[in-house]
Amino acid sequence: MERHIQILLNRISCASVTVATITLILLFLRTPETCIPEDSKPKPHHKFPKSTCDFSHRTFTSIQKRNKQLWSTNSWQKKVQSFESLFRDLQSLNHLQNHSKVLCVSAGAGHEVMALKQIGVGDVTGVELVDSPPLVSRADPHNLPFFDGVFDLGFSAHLDQALFPSRFAAEMERTVRKGGVCAVTVEECGDGEVKEIANMFRKASCR
Fold first, then answer.
1. Total Cβ atoms within 10 A of residue 122
2. How many CA atoms lie within 13 A of 172 on its CB side?
3. Is-above-0.90 flag for pTM?
4. What local confidence, expressed as pLDDT, does residue 206 receive?
5. Which stretches does DSSP call E strand in the chain?
6. What is the longest distance spanned by two Cα atoms in the chain?
7. Mean of pLDDT values over 7-23
8. What distance in Å separates the CA atoms of residue 103 and residue 150, rounded to the nearest whole number?
């Protein structure tokens, strides 16, 4: 009696597995109704869509078009103009010339890089943890991929946001030639804070 029950249970199990397998196959072969319009022509990949959004048309925006849109905004232009004013002050102090090689550290989206180019500085390199082509390349500000003393001026508007400010300043200073300039901008602070920042730069002139 027990043997007959065991045989019956085995048959039921086999039947269940068979039904489940057939159902799974049908689900794979069936194209989700939300993916493909009824009047579309069948294509081989329709049998196995990766998601219900695979068939939707996605617009591709080139970097050039995206940059053009970004650079035309009032917010972008105001920031660039602000940096232009700052760099013209550096020019008046004879710390920056059109032939200067400039490094912008933690350059963000590249406002300062564009500002330098717009006032006539041709050799400008901008670096940030996340690149923003064509203005900014990817590099770790705490471990800059440049030889010692290759730049005339190092600039950063984000020293106060650095994870390791001393290391950040040391790397920035290392890449600036002897007699060059390290220029940083920070939020309004007192004489004590200014002195503390200046002490991070031991070789290049700090403004």
1. 11
2. 35
3. no
4. 47
5. 101-105, 123-128, 136-138, 151-156, 176-184, 205-206
6. 105
7. 67
8. 9
